[in-house]
């Protein structure tokens, strides 16, 4: 395991964390087998930790017209555009697992226009990228394009809100030089029989 | 008062909101004299509402080496760069009030390099803008520049985290076409005797 | 009143100015109640002063298919894009007065796509912004779009020429660090009964 | 001679022009042997014509610490960056003649950093390009760099003001699709014995 | 194995290729276990095929002050910036193998500034990216920075020439929609004991 | 004749070059009357020299649906966008000669949208510029646009491949500060009777 620093800022030890945060981290560790570094880096600021993961789960765990894999596609595509190493590596792993597809994450991270996605998913990613890179110019034509692909108004909110949330996440990770856990790189790369 | 829509998405009526959200909105209304539209637009998604304002308050209300006025400068400068009408108008009003300065918000929104700020505040805004516009290239030299102006490590986190949070906020507001309340435009523009 | 410098360059005293320039400045002062700083900064170069204001008036005072308020919208939108503090603050004031609208200037300066303008005015501002930001790519389709909104050929010239003139003005103001007069910030913000 | 249109807009016949404009055009024709198209295109708007050429001459004909060739370098470099065909071709010809250098115009138009200019001229062009492309970020360091090369405060104004004026001129020419006269292309390309 | 098209253009069958190209492809297949799609797509144009691989080998196989892994870092970093899926996936695999490092390729592809590279390699990648993204502004300071890190003049040529060659390669691959072979994604991801 | 250096890197003397390279250079000199500097600069690296000119000739000399003049238009337009002085000056000369047009090169180099080209050539240049400046976003609509102008699939490859090759060439020339021969500037500027 790498011993490189995982953040430019202090990272608290588990025993020094508030109880709710320690409990959440331990439960994540139990499920994943390791603690993703974003939990440790954000634990330096407990209130921000709580808000960040509440926001994340509100978007990524809710019932939605978008599958969980599609939501991860949005994360990976916009994080690639924002050159966020942590988000591309960590959410790339999650995308591979959710989509049961060993290739999709690297495709979407590099150039989603050339990825193995449906036309509907392409429209979803076009909108997510516009919110990510030039939200000021979003207008009626963008909403019409999504509607034409069968997205509901709530789906559009989900796409835009996920893109907006990771605009925050990408900037935070780049600011603190958040290091992706070594474990993420290989996850989901070998198809299960 | 304007009757233009305040969001592209449905806005719930107060009686239809969850109790905690209605209570928060009523308390804001009592203090401010009106309900800022961001509360109403986000109430469409209660979980996101709760996370958004918890995050906001964690950054904007905490004890910090930055004054509250300085934190609003960060919001206004980065929201100007992101062409976010709601954030510039609403937080411009708050900045005028917090800084007791009738000119500062319009200056910072348009070109912070020409604003009446101290060299220390200029360095703060340079970093906030870099996190906002090209966080991928933040590096050691940026941290050294802030340190040279006396910012602590925690101050730097605050600057970057506020900039990152409003990267989310700006994109959300532009996506939903969030309309600034008419009340904000004039707030803090007349100096008190 | 602020005592900050209004220009990086020398500013002549009224008695030292050529007679025609002094007379013009005094007449402006009489009408406005103060002397906008652009007059004082440019008086350092009398020939440029004369040409600048002749050009300005040829565009902004002529009979035109554009209202005076619409012409100020063009100024404010393009000056916002060029981050020109003087032009946004000073012409924002004039726009509020000409349009008898207390909100329009801040809306247009930040993101004209979200401003309370008609579809025709939106098309006008789209063209003005294209001339301002990428004139090299203006082509037939842009002229057709304006024609479809009922703009005459002379109107199109006006839109483009105003945008081009303030491309000069914005760069001049940023180069000399032209300071907006304090008076502009509040002008036109309180609706008359 | 080419019979392509010289402007998207109407071009008046000489007899239909105001007397002062016709006289000026005839005197230019006598000196140059032909009428540069910018005179004809702008004659469509006599007041703008007068202001434009008054401004041009105030900057390009005044006594200055910059040679006339250096001023044309500024025009050609910034017009190249703005993709203004008329200005590059017409002022390229003037630059060749003023500098008595058959190569300099094509060098400066394409990439002034690789042109046969002195370090002082390189600094001049760096500043002109910054005013042309990102005037909002001009600051003290830029003025210090010019001062270190011996430029006076008045010289700096000249550099910036010429760059700003051609920001207008380039946008106007691109908007009207101003066609360079065929005569310009070969002017100054053959060294005199 | 995927049955998606590997190029927008016709791909010749092995028996229809010129003898030298078929022989080269068969030898690559023997060594790698599969035929990288760039060989098949370019075989549509035998003369371009021969020149492309001759150029590639002249840069990537020559004796150089850069290791083969370092040369692949240049390819992966610049291809990431150019959003070239084929080059990132294929050369990412080669980089992992050459560097015997399972993490480095994903790090460099997303944001080389956050990758596990030495300061000397960071300087190498800074220069490669400048040649890739704004070669027109390369100047003396860039050469001095490389020299300070011990790069010889020949090393600098190598860095710049590899970056320039993949500027071609990235554009070709994006133009033809060159599909990365499925085999590349997993290569080099499992460290050998 | 200029005695300025033609490259930042060593330039071998003719007698020191490999026989095949010397022979090629002498034959070029015989035909053109001088040796274009790109041959001398690249002779520093014989293998790259051979691959470069093989690639160049494969694209520029092959039978094609594009005339040789059209291919040079692609070179000049994209080299202008990349600010490559050598390529604009040298290929501008070749374009003038191949097109028997004294004006076309300066027009295309500065702004191809205003050049005297046919609508078909305009579509060709639009595609070439997209491959040059944002190849990652090339998609079906671009191919359809070319097809609508009668370009075959092979023509499209030619357009894109020439643009891609000069992406390499432009970066190489800017990296080594390749100086255009003085002879190029005047070539093809005087129409033959």
What does this entry look like structurally?
The structure is a homohexamer of 193-residue chains. The first copy, chain A, is 63% helix and 0% strand. By secondary structure, chain A is mainly alpha-helical. The model of chain A has no long low-confidence stretch (mean pLDDT 97). Chain A starts with 18 loop residues before the first helix and ends in a 17-residue tail after the last helix. Chain A is globular. Chains in contact: A-B, A-E, B-C, C-D, D-F, E-F.
Greatest chain-chain contact: A-B, 41 and 41 residues
Q: What is the CA-based Rg of chain A, rounded? A: 17 Å
Largest β sheet strand count, sense and barrel closure of chain A: none
β-strand percent of chain A reads: under 5%
**Structural class by secondary-structure content of chain A:** mainly alpha
Poorly predicted sequence stretches spanning 5 or more consecutive residues of chain A = none
Oligomer: homohexamer
Q: Tell me, briefly, the overall form of chain A.
A: globular
Mean pLDDT of chain A: 97
What is the H-and-E element order of chain A? HHHHHHHHH
Number of helices of chain A: 9
Share of helix among residues of chain A? 55-70%
Record field, number of beta strands of chain A: 0
Give the CA-CA distance, first to last residue of chain A. Answer: 28 Å
């Amino acid at each position: 395991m790498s011993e490189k620093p995982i953040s430019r800022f202090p990272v608290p030890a588990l025993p020094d964390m508030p109880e709710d945060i320690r409990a959440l981290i331990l439960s994540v560790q139990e499920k994943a087998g390791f603690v993703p570094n974003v939990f440790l880096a954000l634990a330096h600021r407990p209130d921000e930790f709580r808000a960040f993961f509440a926001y994340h789960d509100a978007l990524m765990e809710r019932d939605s017209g978008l599958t969980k894999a599609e939501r991860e596609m949005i994360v990976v595509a916009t994080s690639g555009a924002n050159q966020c190493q942590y988000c591309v590596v960590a959410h790339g792993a999650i995308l591979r697992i959710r989509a049961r597809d060993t290739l999709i994450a690297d495709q979407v991270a590099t150039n989603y226009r050339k990825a193995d996605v449906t036309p509907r998913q392409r429209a979803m990613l076009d909108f997510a990228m516009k919110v990510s890179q030039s939200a000021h110019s979003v207008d009626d034509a963008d909403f019409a394009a999504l509607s034409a692909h069968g997205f509901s108004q709530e789906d559009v909110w989900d796409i835009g809100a996920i893109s907006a949330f990771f605009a925050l996440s990408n900037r935070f990770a780049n600011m603190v030089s958040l290091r992706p856990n070594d474990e993420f790189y290989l996850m989901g790369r070998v198809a299960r029989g």
